[in-house]
Amino acid sequence: MKINSRIIALSIFIIIFGGVGLAKLTGMWKTTSTKVPRKITEGESAGQFNPNDIKGSYTFKDVIHNFDIPDEDLAEAFLIDKSQIDTFKCKDLEANYSDTQGKDIGTGAVRAFVAFYKGIDIDLTEETYLPKQAVEIILKNGKPTKKQIEYMKTHSVEVEK
Fold first, then answer.
1. pTM of this prediction?
2. Do residues 77 and 105 touch, judged by C-beta distance below 8 A?
3. Fewest CB atoms within 10 Å of the CB: 12, 62, 67, 92?
4. DSSP strands (E only) in 10-158
5. In this structure, how many other beta carbons lie within 10 angstroms of the beta carbon of residue 104?
6. How far apart are alpha carbons 46 and 29 in whole angstroms?
């Protein structure tokens, strides 16, 4: 049996573009990030957004919006000028500090800050350090658990901008 090449070409066209069109109609086709983290489904923090979903491409404004953290607390914790909050990305933190005693302060530090500030228990997959001023803000304005307070005692670092 022979299949006409025009029918094959038309079938391929319909399958590809029909699949994309169907995915768009059902809302499954997304080409941009929504900057909304997944929600925690289990435990005491169920229903809250998961700080582990914070990506390097999130701006501080995204973090503030999703996790309801006061902008002045987040800006002060990481020595960021409040005028930069709308555009400053978490991944840019590493280049923001001149001396961290060899300790990495980047997106992981933002994840930890948010989790500790909100009292959300998360698994820290990597050893994460927080600037000393971030620890002070968490202790003053946040709701850290006892376990998180103990962690911060050994995982904070004096930083210079």
1. 0.78
2. no
3. 12
4. 130-131, 156-157
5. 16
6. 27
